[in-house]
Amino acid sequence: MEEFWPVADALAYLAGTWRIERSVRDLAGGDEGRFTGTAVLRPLPEEEGEGEGEGGLRYEESGTFVWRGTARAAGRVLRFLPGPAPGTADVRFADGRPFHDLDLTTGRHVAEHPCAADLYRGEFTVRGADRWRTVWRVAGPAKDLLLTTDYTRA
To answer: What is the mean pLDDT of residues 143-154?
Structure first.
């Protein structure tokens, strides 16, 4: 049985620099890819916050994605804002659109995000003070993917 590591405050836990290893599997076509890089979560610049004293984090991911033998630079930016309950987070895309909620108080959380006709279902598990994982299953008419990401504190 897998044990999870409860986190009292998701934003405090996630702050810092993380090494990323991500596998991407196309379940329909059988292709597999890999992303390696870094995620840095630092205090959100004032101009990106939702309000005064918000206390959120800017998630900046950068690295190399290899797909079908071709390597290319890849990255993304997200905003992690304080959630509705103490210790939780509200994750948003860089432009402010909602992505998903995040509650790590039990060490495990499941979130969903509809994207057009596809559905993203993510499971977040905390495995210790310096390790966590996300597993996203993306299913729908446009995508059939499994993305597994391991984060290790740098």
So the answer is: 97
